[in-house]
Amino acid sequence: MILRQFLHSDPVGISYLFGCGGKAAGAVVDPVGDIQPYLQAADNTGMRIHFVIDTHVHADHLSVGRALAAAAGAEYVLSTEAGVSFPYKGVHDGDVLPLGNVSATVMHTPSHTPEHICILVTDQTRANEPWFVFTGHTLMVGDLGRTELAVSAEEGARQLFRSVSRLKELPDYVEVLPGAYAGSVCGRRLSGKPSSAIGFEKRHNQAFTIEDEAEFVRFMVAEIPPAPPEAARIRAANSGMAAAAA
Fold it and tell me: From which residue to which does the signal peptide run (predicted)?
């Protein structure tokens, strides 16, 4: 297993390169900024990038996912629910992206956005059980992601409740690798530590501990952080619906 984490400060976010070193097959999750560091990291680890995955259509930064996929000769991956205007590899809940001895299973987790996905990763050279999960902006360290683009804040929170209930079913030892950390506008109580575990978040993430749906909805619609001022324009650009400079 190869795993590299890239921490970004403007905007605050986290990207990843992971995959099978033995079979030289890798993927990038939620790339931000210059594409060269991902290409260089793949080269340094001897891997070819097969997939570039965005966990959702971002609204806080212009995605470089398609540009990286083109440069690497990879497939650009989004949920089939994304509703974008360009060709891409659409994935459904339960789909598996093969990466040699590593498998990446898609979990559709509508929450932060309706098309949001998480990626559950297993290294089959070590076990048939999952090792870690890329949670994007659904589950972060210390909080859950702000809901966006729902019919109402309450309906968004209900979708989020169902999504996090699925994540709670994962074994406690599964590592949580989120898409953001402290300083991001996508959560309220984010930790500066950019990784955690399902079991730790069950015990110490206030939003993640709530088991009653009505209580959860009340908690999540209180103190919702505002979306970035350019969120609508950025999401439109990332969807291919508008020019990036518009």
Answer: none
